[in-house]
């Protein structure tokens, strides 16, 4: 999709003043459409290239000292270099540096009124559009390129503009100013004229001029390398992207062509909510079924249990009581623990004292080395016991008890 080129008036104007606009074809090689309208009534499209008229820009050729191109230092350096050349205060001007500029080499600096440029950008973006570039109507030519001569304006106020390696010069189309404009032979220049002033320019210059519409000339200027959106204007790129996203969101929410998509998203969300609730209900039912099975095992195995509060805990308690009543032993009792320890201790190691309480066996006087302790612990683990030393004590307890 081609970008919309807009040339707003750079002078105090009413809010509904008309701006000229041009839209190119797919590759911007030819004019697809053009016209003038208030900014709020511009053709559809969010991306805008802003055109700054030639009379609003002054051009300055200077050399930036080494280190002056560093980020954060360039603008103060330019203010110091241009302070004596500017009519306005340096703080009130906007600077744009030539593309590909390097410190220590002569470069071109475009200067225009900061407030006017900011007002133009804000006015365009207030309509929900995004200014992607700011381009000058005329710009200096690089070294070695042929000079460009434009005859522009209306028949009552024709102008000649020359763009060459020495800058940009615009003067009224009169014989008085002709010599000042023509610094190079006319046959070495690329000369074009707008329809309204072409006849006057041909009579004055003595050559036949190719006719180029203003809209086509603007498209050619937009294809140039210059972008005046630098410094504080360049820092607003993120904000512009945010505005574009907000505009897209508003269109998505309210535009009729997105109604089907909006209903599709609502139905998708509802389907997800219903599916999640159905899955959660199924999981709850499965968990409740498992709990009920555990309760049934407890009540069938021990009919004396009438009230089930915590089935696993009650089951363990009932099993312990049954073992005690029948004289059975558990892994945490003293006899099984001594039997397991007797088979794991090194030969000839006999404790001098034994204490057993709370399912923990304490033995004193074994004096096991670290290697022997590791060996004993390794043999007890498969039998369900843990062993560790605390000073001259060897502590043994069942895994479940631990």
Write the layout of secondary structure elements.
Blueprint: E1 4-7, E2 18-24, E3 31-38, E4 47-52, E5 58-63, H1 74-82, E6 93-97, E7 106-113, H2 114-125, E8 130-136, E9 148-154, E10 157-164, E11 167-172, H3 175-181, E12 190-193, H4 198-205, H5 214-222, H6 237-254, H7 259-301, H8 311-326, H9 334-344, E13 353-357, E14 360-364, H10 370-380, E15 385-390, E16 393-398
Parallel strand pairs: 1-4, 4-8, 9-12
Antiparallel strand pairs: 1-2, 2-3, 5-7, 6-7, 9-10, 10-11, 13-14, 14-16, 15-16
Helix pairs in contact: 7-8
Q: What count of helical segments does DSSP give?
A: 10
Outline? elongated
Measured by DSSP, the beta-strand proportion falls in 15-25%
Mean pLDDT reading? 84
Taking the sheet with the most strands, its summary is: 5 strands, mixed
The total count of strands amounts to: 16
Straight-line distance between termini: 73 Å
Low-confidence stretches: none
Spatial strand arrangement across the major sheet: 3-2-1-4-8
Radius of gyration: 45 Å
H and E string: EEEEEHEEHEEEEHEHHHHHHEEHEE
Structural class: alpha+beta
Protein name: Type II secretion system protein GspL
InterPro entries: ATPase_NBD, T2SS_protein-GspL
């Amino acid at each position: 999709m081609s970008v919309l080129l807009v040339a707003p008036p750079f002078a105090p104007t009413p809010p509904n003043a008309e701006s000229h606009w041009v839209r190119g074809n797919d590759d911007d090689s030819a004019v697809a459409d053009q016209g003038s309208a208030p900014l709020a009534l511009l053709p559809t499209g969010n991306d805008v290239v802003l055109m700054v008229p030639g009379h609003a820009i002054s051009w300055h050729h200077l050399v930036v000292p080494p280190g002056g191109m560093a980020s954060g230092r360039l603008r103060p350096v330019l203010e110091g270099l241009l302070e004596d050349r500017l009519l306005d205060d340096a703080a009130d001007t906007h600077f744009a540096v030539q593309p590909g500029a390097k410190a220590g080499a002569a470069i071109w600096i475009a200067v225009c009124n900061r407030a006017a440029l900011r007002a133009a950008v804000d006015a365009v973006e207030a309509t929900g559009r995004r200014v992607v570039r700011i381009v000058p109507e005329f710009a200096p030519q690089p070294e070695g390129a042929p000079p460009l001569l434009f005859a522009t304006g209306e028949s009552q106020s024709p102008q000649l503009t020359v763009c060459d390696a020495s800058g940009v010069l615009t003067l009224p189309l009169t014989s008085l100013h002709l010599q000042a404009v023509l610094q190079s032979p006319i046959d070495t220049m690329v000369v074009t004229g707008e329809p309204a002033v072409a006849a006057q320019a041909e009579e004055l210059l003595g050559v036949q001029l190719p006719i180029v519409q203003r809209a086509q000339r603007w498209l050619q200027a937009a294809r140039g390398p210059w972008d005046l959106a630098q410094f504080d204007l360049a820092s607003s790129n993120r904000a512009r992207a945010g505005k574009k996203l907000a505009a897209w969101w508003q269109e998505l929410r309210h535009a009729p062509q997105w109604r089907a998509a909006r209903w599709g998203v609502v139905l998708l969300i509802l389907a997800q909510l219903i599916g999640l609730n159905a899955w959660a209900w199924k999981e709850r039912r499965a968990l409740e079924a498992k709990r009920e099975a555990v309760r049934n095992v407890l009540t069938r195995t021990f009919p004396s249990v009438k009230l089930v509060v915590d089935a696993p805990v009650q089951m363990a308690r009932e099993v312990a009581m049954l073992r005690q009543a029948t004289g059975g032993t558990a892994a945490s009792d003293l006899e099984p623990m001594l039997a397991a320890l007797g088979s794991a201790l090194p030969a000839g190691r006999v404790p001098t004292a034994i204490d057993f309480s709370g399912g923990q066996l304490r033995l004193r006087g074994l004096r096991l080395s670290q290697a022997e302790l590791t060996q004993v612990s390794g043999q007890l683990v498969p039998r369900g016991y843990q062993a560790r030393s605390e000073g001259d004590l060897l502590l043994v307890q069942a895994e479940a008890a631990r």
